Write a sequence for this structure.
């Protein structure tokens, strides 16, 4: 029966015996497995062969004080195996006494609690981390709250600053566009004046010739022709001066008048470039705004078509302009369509045409601000919409402006 008890203990526990000096006299198979040493390597060695260097010497002083006083010692002991692994053993060391009551040896019974100890340490570490997070959480919340308050306090200021910057950029773009338009207008004046100046020079030559011949009737006719030419040139300057008058206020005007003004200003260029313009007015429409601003948009679209005719060497040049009244979303609009047969805009560029500074022309021919500013005028000044799509063998621009 004793053998059965001993076998049961040895098979389920880690067992070792030492003499009164701590020299190992017996170990079971479980002890060999947990320590990594063989039976022969352990017998005759001091039990401190499995001592972990991290364990304080005071622990062993307490152990020896306890067992030498003939009392059992119980503790969870940290040991070091042969391969350097740390193991934790729940240990009970019992002094064995002889018939005289003296200590003859020590029996140690242990079981492995390494997993439990490591789990406990892991939990303790998590608890410490959680405690630290809890301690710092309030501070972090306060810090984030302060940052949010600062952000809210500065947000309005930052928004105002960005809005001011954008307004300044818009002003710069606007004035660059106006200067580009002014350059175009000066070119138009040159076109308008070139033929009258040639005619005036010829009239003056003929007047001199008639004067030498004493042909008073001919001189009077030529004088009248000269006055008419000069008056027409003066009217041209007056038209362009009015067109660029910055003090014009918004008022109700007829869309057809803006179209007519645009065609009149570009008349010489239209004739010179042999462009056939077809105007179809289905409904004349009144809108609120500045007439010359709409004219500027139309002029820009016609000039763009003219440049496309030239660059693509289009021989039979057509621009069709239609004006009609439509109801869109229960609101009345004046809808102006401008078609050309200049082959349209390439797929890679069609989505960029209203962007500032984008142009397909040579840098000497365009700034890339024309269509951008046209869009700005239609949307911001006239509260309308301008759209483009390739149509048949050219481009179609549609301008929709709310009717007054």
């Amino acid at each position: 029966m004793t053998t059965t008890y001993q076998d049961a203990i040895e098979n389920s526990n880690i067992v070792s015996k030492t003499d009164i000096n701590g020299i190992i006299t017996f170990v079971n198979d479980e002890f060999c497995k947990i320590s990594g040493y063989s039976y022969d390597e352990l017998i005759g060695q001091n039990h401190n062969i499995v001592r972990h260097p991290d364990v304080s010497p005071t622990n062993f002083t307490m152990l020896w004080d306890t067992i030498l006083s003939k009392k059992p010692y119980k503790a969870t002991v940290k040991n070091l195996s042969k391969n350097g692994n740390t193991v934790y053993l729940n240990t009970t060391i019992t002094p064995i006494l002889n018939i005289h009551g003296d200590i003859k040896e020590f029996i140690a019974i242990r079981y492995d609690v390494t997993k439990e100890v490591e789990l406990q340490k892991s939990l303790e570490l998590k608890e410490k981390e959680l405690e630290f997070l809890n301690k710092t959480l309030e501070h972090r919340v306060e810090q984030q709250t302060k940052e949010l308050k600062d952000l809210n306090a500065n947000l309005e200021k930052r928004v105002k600053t960005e809005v001011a910057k954008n307004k300044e950029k818009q002003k710069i773009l606007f004035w660059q566009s106006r200067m580009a338009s002014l350059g175009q207008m000066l070119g138009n004046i040159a076109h308008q004046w070139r033929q009258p100046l040639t005619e005036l020079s010829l009239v003056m030559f003929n007047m001199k010739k008639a004067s030498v011949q004493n042909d008073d009737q001919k001189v009077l006719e030529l004088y009248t022709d000269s006055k008419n030419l000069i008056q027409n040139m003066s009217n041209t300057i007056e038209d362009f001066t009015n067109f660029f008058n910055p003090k014009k206020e918004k008022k109700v005007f007829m869309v057809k008048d803006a179209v007519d003004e645009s065609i009149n200003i570009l008349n010489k260029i239209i004739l010179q470039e042999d462009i056939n313009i077809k105007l179809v007015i289905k409904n004349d429409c009144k809108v609120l705004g500045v007439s010359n601003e709409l004219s500027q948009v139309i002029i820009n679209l016609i000039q763009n078509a003219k440049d496309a005719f030239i660059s693509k060497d289009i021989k039979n040049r057509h621009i069709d302009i239609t004006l009609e009244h439509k109801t869109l979303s229960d609101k009345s609009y004046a809808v102006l369509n401008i078609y050309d047969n200049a082959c349209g805009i390439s797929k890679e560029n069609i989505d960029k045409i209203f962007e500032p500074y984008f142009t397909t022309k040579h840098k000497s021919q365009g700034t890339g601000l024309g269509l951008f500013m046209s869009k700005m005028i239609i949307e911001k000044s006239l509260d309308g919409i301008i759209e483009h799509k390739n149509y048949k063998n050219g481009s179609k621009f549609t301008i929709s402006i709310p009717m007054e």
